[in-house]
Amino acid sequence: MKTDQLILGIETSCDETAAAVIKNGTEIVSNVVASQIESHKRFGGVVPEIASRHHVEQITLVLEEALRQAGVGYEGLDAIAVTEGPGLVGALLIGVNAAKAVAFAHGIPIVGIHHIAGHIYANRLIQEIQYPALSLVVSGGHTELVLLDEPGSFKVIGETRDDAAGEAYDKVARTLGLPYPGGPHIDRLAQMGSPTLKLPRAWLEGSYDFSFSGLKSAVINTLHNAEQRGEKIEPEDLAASFQASVIEVLVMKAVKAAKEYDVKQVLLAGGVAANKGLREALTEAFSQLPIELSIPPLYLCTDNAAMIGAAGSVMFEKGKRSGMDLNGNPGLDIEAF
Prior knowledge:
Distance between the termini: 33 Å
Oligomer: single chain
CATH class of the largest domain: Alpha Beta
Number of domains: 2
Strand order of the largest sheet: 3-2-1-4-5
């Protein structure tokens, strides 16, 4: 008699083709990721058409490998969870159509998942989430504070008004001549430098919103002005100063919101959650507070399908089902999905 819930997660929102099998919403049975970083590196960013082509080539292989590692066939699955959006529409469509094909062929329920909900529920693969919870989402395309009053409920209380933090990292890295993706390189340099340069912090008083466009411009101007004066700025110090500005705003807003909304747990989520400086600063800040902090391991911070399966389990248990009209939705709203 079958008692365990098994969900197949599929993620193709950007440049990783991923599939995973998740047991009971909390246990990773398999987690397969085919990365495309090498293909996009020479362009300095993700090229949507190339990403889509790679997904087409990899999706069947990745699905088969995830099931093989899990030792389960399609008949053993309870549901398929797939990233519906946001993301690159061409990339999303590969995963969505693969999920619909499998669901139709094998009579399996399908659940469309918001990509950021997946990042948030990656934390459930480490420990059970305590509600109400607050998630600090920091990635290449998103910087948000999301309140979770109960499982599967999302309320955005703060978001970026321009560049996301990860986007600012990549642009600053490009200015310094660092390879794509730039975030890890800036983080590494920052550990070697000192935050000696005065750079702005956009506090946006009275809101939990974020803005990093001005900081990015300040970094570029600082470099250009130094060049015109014939002065040399150490890349390590510039990286450390930039990172200190970003992290101070992120941490202070997260702490303030956690206190105001009286949450039991704060969840770090998104690709920039892999940033060593951010992880250390949050750990230090919340060590002084009676609020639990959850930080996923590095392999669950970047895009993967295990997080989609974890979020899928929550939404499946809430009764969410998607029909065969499911489509890729690059503008999907986390509060409405």
